[in-house]
Amino acid sequence: MSTSVATAEPVALSKQGKSRSLYSDAFRRFRKNRIAAAGLLILLIMIVVAILAPVFALHDPNRMFFDHRLVGPNEYFPLGTDSLGRDIWSRMVYGSRISLQTGLIAVGIALLFGVPMGLAAGYFGKIVDTLIMRICDVILAFPGIIFAIWLISILGPSLRNVMISVGLFSVPGFARLVRSSTLQVKEMDYITAEKSIGAGTLRILSRHVLPNVVTPVIIFSSLRIASAILAGAGLSFLGLGTAPPTPEWGAMLSEGRAYLGTAWWVAFFPGLAIMITVLAANMVGDGLRDALDPRGRK
Questions:
Q1: Does residue 33 fall inside a structural domain?
Q2: Domain span at residue 62?
Q3: Count of the separate structural domains present in the chain
Q4: Percentage of the chain lying above the pLDDT 70 cut
């Protein structure tokens, strides 16, 4: 009886150790990273605020209180009012929807085009690889913000075109990342075995190559969201994004720069919101990079 108990325990422990996957282990390490967890908590709070904006906003974001223009923070207006008497807190709450939407959709566009381009370039090589990489080189030849301004000048200023432009100049980064990972994966023995039994290209790419390049894509996406939010705010700051009076953090920051000496709160709080959001997204990205690094597993 004692012998069976002694032999059963190591077997159970070994099964438990094998059942721990890469992602469950990464989640455990991410949860222990306090900085990354704090960044995720900040982003979740902002997402909740954006979804429930009518609940958290104290006033209509476009309502003008002409008798309370450029009023500092007080009980009625927690973050003060702007030059038209609009409540800055309410405008920031509704503006969070646009900023988060810009980051997520722009990265989604980059994923939609960048991942297939990287897979095709890395797997097929030769002419396909050369053509795709030269397209990426042309885009990368321009600074990101200059490329976005050029594209918006063609498409016209709007929030939709800001998302498209930010997403398109992010495509080369995803394409190059996926290409480099695909070049490593396609030389593995199990890929050769799949080819030997007659597996099609689509099956190999979808079932074997793509799952093995997901991890670096997840990490890069989380970091790129921060850059996309910042780029979207910068384009709105230049007047190329949302049209007034739609509340958007970058546009609010641009409006407030004329009052930095007399009403600091008009530009300070939108700028602070951009900084906190970008910082939180970077914290989550760094945490994912550390958690998903296979070298960190024990």
A1: no
A2: 42-296
A3: 1
A4: 89
- pTM for the model stands at 0.80
Distance CA 153, CA 209 (A): 38
Q: Is residue 25 assigned to a domain?
A: no
Find all residues with CB under 8 Å of 159, minimum gap 6, and list them.
98, 102, 241, 242, 246, 248
Query: Tens digit of pLDDT for each residue in 140-189?
Result: 888 878 888 888 888 888 888 899 998 998 899 999 999 988 888 877 77
The CATH number that applies at residue 257 is 1.10.3720.10
Which residues does residue 81 pair with via DSSP β-bridges, in sequence order? 87
